[in-house]
Specification:
181 residues, mainly alpha, 6 helices, 0% strand
Length: 181
C-alpha cells in the first residue's frame, strides 16, 4: 500500500511538472508573439508616415524620382508582407530607402527648413527609435523562448515548440548612403 502511494505521488509530481513546463513554454511563445505585434504596430506607424514624407520631398526634389520610387516600393513590400520573416526583410529594405531619402534631403536647404518635413522627419525618427527598442525587446524574448525549448527539460517538448528567428538588421541597412550630384 505504501509503495502504491509513493508511485501515485511520483506520477502526480511528474504530471504537475509536465503541465507547468508546457504552460511556461506557452507563456514564453505568447510573449514572443506579443513582442512581434509591438514591432508590427511601429512598422505600420512608419508606413503611414511615409506617403506624406514622400509628397513633401517630391515638391522640392522632383528629379530624385528613383529614390522616391524605392521608398514607395519598399513601403508596399512591407505592407504586403504576411510573415515576420517577410516583414523583417521588407523593413530592412525600407530602412535603407529612407536613409537614401534623408541623404537626398540634405542637398535641399529649403526642404530641410520646411516645417512639415521637419515634423515628419521628427515623427519618423521617434518611430525608428521605438522600432529599435521593440527589436531589442523582441530579440531578448526570442532568446529566452529559444533557450527554454532548447534546454532540458523544455527540449522534451521540442516537437511542439519550434525556435523563432531574431530580428537582425541587414548589412545594407547599416550602411550610410552616399549622395553625389
Amino acid at each position: 500500500m505504501v509503495i502504491l502511494i509513493i508511485i501515485l505521488v511520483i506520477l502526480a509530481a511528474l504530471v504537475i511538472g509536465a503541465v507547468a513546463l508546457y504552460n511556461g513554454l506557452v507563456r514564453k511563445r505568447n510573449r514572443v508573439d506579443n513582442a512581434w505585434s509591438q514591432i508590427d504596430v511601429q512598422l505600420q506607424r512608419r508606413a503611414d508616415l511615409i506617403p506624406n514624407l514622400v509628397e513633401t520631398v517630391k515638391g522640392y526634389a522632383a528629379h530624385e524620382q528613383g529614390t522616391l520610387d524605392k521608398v514607395t516600393q519598399a513601403r508596399s513590400m512591407l505592407q504586403s508582407a504576411t510573415t515576420p520573416d517577410e516583414q523583417m526583410k521588407a523593413d530592412n529594405m525600407l530602412t535603407g530607402a529612407l536613409r537614401s531619402l534623408f541623404a537626398v534631403a540634405e542637398a535641399y536647404p529649403d526642404l530641410k527648413a520646411n516645417a512639415n518635413f521637419q515634423q515628419l522627419q521628427s515623427q519618423l525618427s521617434e518611430t525608428e527609435d521605438k522600432i529599435s527598442y521593440m527589436r531589442q525587446s523582441y530579440n531578448d524574448t526570442v532568446m529566452a523562448y529559444n533557450n527554454a525549448i532548447q534546454t532540458f527539460p523544455g527540449m522534451l517538448l521540442s516537437g511542439i515548440f519550434k525556435p523563432r528567428e531574431s530580428f537582425d538588421a541587414a548589412p545594407e541597412a547599416e550602411s550610410v548612403p552616399r549622395v553625389q550630384f
